[in-house]
Fold these 3 entries.
Entry 1:
Amino acid sequence: MANFAITPNWLFHSNGADNNFLVLKPVGTISNRNAIEAKVTAVATIGGEEVTQVREITTASSRHAQDSLSADFGLGEATSTDITVKFPSGIVVELKQVEPNQTFEILEAAPSLPNTGGIVPPWQTLLMVSAVFFIAGVLFLVFWTISNPRSVRP
């Protein structure tokens, strides 16, 4: 930890724990892309009591600081969590019985679409990006062939 040369620097080392966690990254589609000002609420039963944790996505919480754009929750021995994300646009995404020890994105759902929780698995993102590049490549070859008819051999 650095304290602007007022005191000596300290290094914190944690050996970790076996407790459960959940890391959520809200992604705005109508609001801003980083979902700044989104409120993420997690409700879980920890130690026999219902515990509510709230994280607000901000860029910085103090001077000379930068906050993570994800919401990290410590869940202890909880086996499931109910998640609510309120985006700056007012759209609310709710997920019920989410299993712990995951990291994922939550997309801001348009009001006209069914609310599926907005979770986009990494394989689906890769599939969409691959499809875009494939279509771009095919279009390039078609236009190149049309504009260079002599270079195409039968």
Entry 2:
Amino acid sequence: MRTIPWKAMAVKSLWLVLAAAVAWLPAAPAGAQAPRDPKLGLVFDMAKGTQRYLVILVNFPDVEPRQPLEAVKERATNMVTQWYQAASYGQTHFQPTVKGPYTLPKPLETYRVSPYNFQVDPKRVMALVRDALSLAGTTARP
């Protein structure tokens, strides 16, 4: 089996975490305008309080992970939660639900998702997310 550096594995893992977190943020009411702060610009304040998010831990069948599962869970749950709590000055608390680990059905090369936003192929990202959600099952939403 091949190994991939921790940085690449972390980027893919955190991407799934962030995508899941964003997917469950509350939607703004129709016609609502985001307030504008003179220094910060647009301010979104509907994400205050406890926000639940889903972490789906996945392995690629052709890659041997370099980090222990517990280290990946720590990074995807506690570290993310602590960062958002600090960044929101204690106004936002994240509550993760962890599923997995699951082994994806296709090798890493099939999903090859770039860590650089400007190089991302949306079809590959959607394939990765679709396969991860399928493995986690339809009851995966926290």
Entry 3:
Amino acid sequence: MNTARRIMTIDGIEIDVVRKAVRRISLRVYPGGEVRLTVPWLMPLSRAEAFVSEKADWLRKTYQRLREEQPRTLPPVSKEQRQELILYINERVPFWLAKMQEQPIQIRLRNMKSQWGNCRPLTRTVTFNLQLAHQPLPFREYIIVHELCHLSVPNHSPAFHALVTRYLPDWKERKRMQIK
């Protein structure tokens, strides 16, 4: 992926500015104090700077809270854990597809840094994070249902959450079971 980088500073906080093919601007603070501003290619830098200025109070508070925190990393997934996860996904995805009256999909597994899964409704491809192998079964089930609901509703609107609730009424409790 093509990207362009530069550094911006606000209130003594160094911000890594990354231009890339994204739709929206986003500002993230990571444990350890890394701050990243992701900016769409065509957005003027002045608009990005204004965005950071609007978020300055949030940035200071969040940076203070997270800079001392150590980044969390889950251990690598062993071959056995990978196989167990594949078996689980290959069992549960067809179950939920049938329940949702959806057609088969292509399933992928890979390590992902910032999400548990993603769904591409147009290609009917769902990718799951290998790190799900370290998560409890109720949380895994929630992620599967969440991603499969995106086949019908490709956003996080109230209609999407209503659909998730229809299939998993306790999804909020399951979501809280995540091991961080």
